[in-house]
Amino acid sequence: MLQRLSGFMKSGKKNRSFYRKSFIWFLLAASVPGLIIAVFTYWFAVGPMEKNIGELHQNQIEERAQNIDDQFGSVELDISHWAFNPRFGSGLKEMDFVYQFRETYDITKTLFMLQGSHPLINQVQLYINGVDPVLFQPEFYMLDDGERIGGFERFIGEGSNIYWTDWLPVEEDNAGSIYKPIVLVHKIPGDSSTPFGVLVAELKRDKVMNLLKTMTPYNEGSTMLLDKNGEVLVADNAEETALDEALRAEVLSRPEPSGTFMLDQGGITYSVSYGELARLSSEWTYISATPITAITSSVITLSNTIFIVSVSGLLLALILSWLASRRVYLPVERLLGLLTGHKSKDLERGMDEFQFLEHQWNQLHNESLNLRMRLEEQRAHVRSGFLLQLLQGHLGSYSEKDLKARMKLYGWDIEQHQFRIMHIQLTGYDILTERFSQGDESLVTFTASNIIEELAAHQFEQYSVMNFHDLTAAVLVMYPDGEPISGRLQTLGTDITKAINGIIHMQVTITISAQMERIQQIPDMYMEVERATGYRKFVNQNQLIHMEQLPAHNDASETHYPFALERDIVHAMRAGDKDEAEQLVTLFLQEVLSARGTEIHVQQSMLQLFGTMQHAILQSGLSPHQLFRGENMFGHLSQIREPEKMLRWMKKNVIVPFIEERDARANIELKRLVESTIEYIHAHFTSDISLEQCADLVGTNSYTLSKYFKQFTGINFIDYVTELRIGKAKTLLRETDLKINDIAGEVGYQQRYFNRIFKKQVGITPGQFREQAEA
Length: 775
Description:
It comes from Paenibacillus soyae. Residues 675-772 form the HTH araC/xylS-type domain. By secondary structure, the chain is an alpha+beta fold. Among the domains are: 2-59 and 299-340, no CATH class; 84-206, Beta-Lactamase; 215-295, 2-Layer Sandwich (Beta-Lactamase), CATH 3.30.450.30; 347-376; 379-553, 2-Layer Sandwich (Alpha-Beta Plaits). Helix content is 57%, strand content 14%. The strands form three sheets. The chain has a six-stranded antiparallel sheet, sandwiched between helices. A five-stranded antiparallel sheet has the order 8-7-11-10-9. Strands 13-14-12-15-16 form a five-stranded mixed sheet, with helices on both faces. The longest helix has 67 residues, at 17-83. The termini are far apart. The model is unreliable at 1-15, 172-177, 352-357 and 552-557 (pLDDT under 50).
């Protein structure tokens, strides 16, 4: 109805001026009262509601900012409370944490307790610069990294007794993190003017971020927290956006410490609230920006409702006005419609009805000729697109009659004709690395298609070459019924093979289909041709497959699979012998090739081998999904068409990643084994202890334990136990009045043997050592 209305409005300015004027008066009379009501409703109702909702939103933001401030204050109070705990007093400076392992264990428990005392705390570290620099994280570590020691000394030298910072000494593998940490530092002892350590609490970034997101309750907009220098401490966006940059720049340029304002960014208006969070030795600034639409969504819904009702009333007035004016002007409109058909542009130039119709006919005729010429120019591309759709089965809904009509339209003579398909596959691409680079497959296929096109023209009158851009092409041949064609197809296959061998230096596998009498048979036959190509010998040599002779090539009476080699490959991988595993995979492929050697058989055998290898990977405790980074390995392997490339793929993408991951995990397990042994030595060095005993406890043999104990500690097992016992004996000689015989028993030695070992290690006897200590 609206289109007809538009046609009436545009037609015949001279003849229809009365109609247009009458229609405008009807429209104004019906629609103006509704528009006035809509404007006044919005002005007096919606406007004040938007203002009140905006003020309510600002109060909500201030309350949530106060809650965030209370959370950070709670963390400061917890850390201060523990920093003044007697456990972190001045006695830590002279403490021997290795000898006094009970106190060390209590400190670790205390740090774990502190770490769990508040949901915002992620990790608590205790650094002490005493006899030797040590770090509790919360477990105890002897710290010998100069860079990390310098970082913690920086904490001791900077700031007041307690302060916030965004810098933290980290391990080298974490140094590339794009996030700044949020760290609270408290020097210890808490009541000392000369601190010798720090208690460092790092906050959970995700928890702080979730706490910050409460300031944007509509899950839209942006929220961030700035330090005293205006740098972003944490934001709800992983990367700084244009909105974040604009917000930060605007807030930093304002002289007031807190307030609200509106910001237009990217065509969206944001309500922005900001303020300060007074922290110890620092001032933080929070910023919360929410789109106005999120705040005033209920008001917008009401506004839209009023707008829809107003527009509906306007449309109703428009329809009623049109019906009324249409009724009045009906006789004149009928006559004008019969003469002009509502076309007015040429009538305005003074044309009569017949001149107008003749002009329109000439325009349509010229457009038809132009389209016919363009169709002739694009026929080759259209024909190629039609055949691709036909081969891929996209025209299955078409009848035989419709397909014949389409092919006749594109210039083919297909009456009383039969069809054959020739499939051409190029092999040996990966061997020619000096000629082709990765990604040149489409260019190589294009060159081969041009060669095939030129050679096919010498053999057939009707044919079409299709380029699939993946080192494969196809030729659809159309020939009259009863015409002998097998010899010509054989000749064409030979010519194509010679030309591609000589020009591109690649091998060719050609598959020739059986004959087809109907066009609807072509998609199914093409699928059979592609399947038959899989029965080629899986070697880089020229091959010609006739589907009519395929049963001779498809003798599957005996299936050979090298199970023994498969088992040996899995054993070599589990043993971590990369060279042996790669050599066995090569033998596996050679044996499969020597059995029947067709592409489909080789692919199925290699897929079976990969499935067995993946099962072995699962049994070893590794995740194939993580090891292969989510790749569809079966899909990649099934797409490989050359044996050499298949062998390289298996070695590079399966064997090497598995063995590297296995070796990495083995080193971790061996380190844990040595650490367990050291813990046992420290707990039982006063009694009789041996390498074999420790090996049995950790579940290995003495040779393996001895080898990796020295590798990870730098000294052998016996020397480590001896140094530990002699060190304990020195402490007892200096600090107690026990007899030397009793001290020997305390450290696990008999007295005569103890005297000899002590003199060998220290250079003097235990009695001489005590005399020097007392002097």
